[in-house]
Design brief:
Elements (H helix, E strand, L loop, with lengths): L3 E6 L10 E6 L2 E7 L6 E8 L5 E4 L8 H6 L18
Antiparallel strand pairs: 1-3, 1-4, 2-3, 4-5
Length: 89
């Protein structure tokens, strides 16, 4: 099993497939990826085991990873908004 890592990516690198955006700080995006598919990172913020326990957490970081959200019984991602159903041309 792989750990979930929440990190700020290094500049000019693409976001790997399956990554989840968890927010941003200034101009930097906070991205959650699995430890199997980690691109070069600028700063590691949180690392969580698949059972939801923290391996590493930067001081003051409050964002939760998907493993932690599963442990609490919450959805991993926000549901996509439904289109309003307006008529096209």
């Amino acid at each position: 099993m792989s750990n979930d890592i929440l990190a700020v990516l290094a500049p000019y690198y693409t976001i790997p497939a399956g990554a989840i955006m968890r927010g941003k700080s200034g101009k930097d995006l906070k991205i959650e990826v699995s430890s199997d598919n980690v691109p070069p990172i600028k700063e590691k913020l949180v690392e969580t085991k698949p059972d939801g326990t923290d391996v590493f957490r930067k001081a003051g970081e409050t964002i939760k990873t998907s493993a932690k959200l599963k442990k609490e019984g919450k959805p991993e991602k926000k549901p996509k908004p439904k289109p309003e159903g307006g008529k096209g041309k």
